[in-house]
Design goal:
The structure is a homodimer.
Chain A (H helix, E strand, L loop, with lengths): L1 E3 L2 H14 L5 E6 L5 H13 L2 E6 L19 H11 L3 E3 L3 H4 L6 E5 L7 H4 L3 H16 L3 E5 L3 H13 L5 E5 L19 H6 L2 H15 L6 H13 L4 E10 L14 E10 L2 E10 L1
Parallel strand pairs in A: 1-4, 2-3, 2-6, 3-4, 6-7
Antiparallel strand pairs in A: 8-9, 9-10
Helix pairs in contact in A: 6-7, 9-10
Chain lengths: 287, 287
């Protein structure tokens, strides 16, 4: 496994590997590091589907707000490299901020519509930062396939919109959220949680399961408002949980819906704070 | 010469030509059509420097304001194809608006800083439209070199900034402005001019030459304000000319300058209206 910090070396390495393997495909897993089994599952899928697997580890300052956790975002490169290796990565791209942004960027890739609600509303500028760095990484790696976890469902919607609008020549592969045994969605930020918060954090996935059950029990008779109440009631059962949002929107357009319609995909998306830690989770439903 | 209207066919054609020619380079000349000798010179340069030459003809609605000349922008595809062929194009990409924008784009590539002044100020949203469509075209054509005329010096600065910031894997080749015998910069919009306007339109290039002479005559002793007066006096000598802007800025950052400094590149950039027709011209100076 190659570990590369410079853009020009990365381009050279990928070019060379492509030249060695005619008809090679490059699978790319962009991450912010502090890898967990969710990331490993993306790498394993890329390993199965592509001839060359590239992982990037880059905590992108552009997608963090001024009062967010850029500085304290967890980092553990040694462990990341071990996970990357065992999951089958060929190349790990691990640039410094000065390599990705030698000067402050004047160019921003902005996606409207899908970014208006959820994390787009809670974290102004976040998705501009995501879309911009992902565009940069795509231009550097030139992958055929890029793998993203559905825990960040809005991020997937934003990237897919951007790829469609800008004719970026690759395929986005959305991958299922991996969960701890008790249902908590895997996240690098779970490490922030105290024991008590960690116990209560299961209300996010519980709330999504409650919604599933309510939908099944009431076959089409349930309203959006009733469904939201099912979800928020469950979250409120955790004394430390503070809801940032609990929204029911169409997917992937992420627009409000007045009723649950047969055959329409929708998402229940949650962001819940435990102390300073903000967790997200979601489930996509198909009536 | 191939004439292609669909993105997928264009990609296929370029892929095939690349496969036929190992180490092939693709030179790309994006235009809005109604080609003149300026465009032809870009194609000829691409022909000299690259193995595959792609021309695009697309009047991009996204870069026109609501009261601008999108509808009446001159079009003559038959003549364009003849010029393209004789200048050595291999492929002409000539998409409809519905091919480039099957749905209204939600993704905008925005460049700040270099777009604040000149045409960026006079034509709000113009460079968002330019940067977005150029990004799309780059993602479709995947050129190694892209050729742009320096008549649109701010456009070149915007595209170069964008390529730098987004790590777009290609080289921008800025090319000299071509001029009519009397000095008028070639432009598809010159066709809008009445005979009288056409005669007076030479004041743009005259003003730039006057500035050159004033700079030479006064070796460093001339102020920015004096230089601006030289330029605006000459333009004012044409009764039909209405100045949109006549600015002296650093190049390529396009920032205001308080004095002319030894060794600092700067641009005198002009936009002048004759009736409904808006002409631009510029010259870059190096003291």
């Amino acid at each position: 496994m190659m570990i590369i910090k410079s853009i020009s070396e990365l381009r050279q390495a990928i070019k060379q590997k492509r030249a060695e393997l005619p008809k090679a495909t490059v699978g790319f897993v962009p991450t912010m590091g502090y890898l967990h089994r969710g990331h490993a599952s993306l790498l394993e899928r890329a390993r199965k589907e592509c001839s060359i697997v590239v992982l990037s580890i880059f905590v992108n300052p552009l997608q963090f707000g001024p009062n967010e956790d850029f500085e304290r975002y967890p980092r553990d490169v040694e462990r990341d490299l071990a996970i990357a290796k065992s999951a089958g990565a060929d190349i790990v791209f691990f640039p410094q901020v000065s390599e990705m942004y030698p000067k402050p960027t004047k160019t921003i890739v902005g996606v409207s519509g899908v970014t208006e609600r959820l994390c787009g509303a809670s974290r102004p500028g976040h998705f501009d930062g995501v879309a911009t760095v992902v565009t940069k990484l795509f231009n550097i790696v030139l992958p055929d396939f890029a793998y993203f976890g559905m825990k960040d469902a809005q991020q997937v919607a934003v990237i897919e919109q951007m790829v469609y609008d800008l004719n970026i020549p690759l395929t986005i592969v959305p991958c299922e959220t991996l969960r701890e045994d008790d249902g908590l969605a895997m996240s690098s930020r779970n490490v922030y949680l105290s024991d008590e918060e960690r116990q209560q954090a299961i209300v996010l996935s519980r709330a999504l399961s409650d919604a599933e059950q309510a939908l099944e029990a009431q076959q089409g008779a349930i309203t959006v408002e009733q469904l939201r109440t099912v979800v928020t009631d469950r979250i409120a059962s955790a004394p430390l949980a503070v809801i940032d949002y609990a929204d029911i929107l169409t997917y992937p357009a992420l627009e409000p819906m007045d009723q649950i319609r047969e055959g329409e995909r929708f998402i229940i998306a949650l962001a819940v704070k435990f102390g300073r830690t903000r967790l997200i989770d979601n489930r996509i439903y198909n009536r």
